[in-house]
Structure prediction request, 376 residues.
Amino acid sequence: MPKLPKVWLITSATSPLGYSVALRALQDGDFVALGCRRDEVAADLGFALQALRDSDGDGDGDADMSDTPNPSDKRLTQQISLSRLHTAFPSHTIIVELDTRLIPLCQSSLSQTVAAFGRVDVMLVCSTKMYVGCIEEIPLQSVVAQFEAATFGPINVVRAALPVLRRQRSGHVLVVTGVTGGMGTPALGVRCAADYAVEGFCDALAYEVAPFGVRVSVVQPPIEVNVLSNPLTIFPEHPSYKKKPIATNNNGKTHTPVTFMRNLISTMHPATTIPPSSPPPPPPNTIPVPTHHNPPAFLPALTPILVETVHIITSIAGLDDPPGRIVVGNENAEQVKERLKAVSEELEDFLEVSVSVDAKGPLLYHTSSGAGLKVE
Prediction:
């Protein structure tokens, strides 16, 4: 029996990961609702119109933006463009305005998807911002912004989808987090906090919606995927975190873990320049000036990094019994195993202390009269 095509709603189809998954799903014959913010739609249409004008001007036809469907158009794998993707797959795509921070847009995107395709089989929550810096370097408003992007946004769109999925008695929610959802990572503390929160949300949700035939999965790609496919905001390094070297790299140079992670991010993201720490720290209660970096829209440079994650997502999407959590890549899996091993060893080391509270002596409990605690 041939496999039925799936209907996807991708919350950020303009991100390198979201776009790559959308293209793979369309090539497999699926239907995709391409979610993006209004400013992203405007920028994409502007790109398409400019390409059309350029084509008319030079007459070579290389930038033809005609309405003729062409799924084999090689430009689909070169540049992120939802308008071009829709032109290539006109009957299998719709573009919906979606900003996960705004609940009405979350609800309307679900309604438009169902109106166009009749159902939603897979919802992929796949993009978020990243704020880089140690905990005391990142101002509170940026901490809140990280949670809005990585926790509250996914919660908003998943909650909007639940009535649809329950009525269908089917559906698969895929939330992309990262290695930051499984272990603390220096310089990415606020992202870790946000990912831990949304993973806890997904774990609880999986139990709640299982009776309705709805499945929930968390996908943890390597850190390279999150660094290169999401907007980055990097805060200046505080000089205090360079005073006591702790970690040593292969070159024999010593760095604190925060500095080590900053340098790692800078090597993964060529456009990233780490702000120098030589200037004196800003006065108390002032906001440090961060640097901002957007992911590249040129896909060939990212394809080798994204291919594993795209394969995992498209392989497990819509399975009857998908994993509740899956890590991408051997290195990522080894890190998770080391983390679980450390947790298990720590539990054994302090097991006697943990079980010692199971005392056989008097127990305190609340009285029914509300008079306080009573000894039994």
Observations:
- The first strand starts at residue 7 and ends at 10.
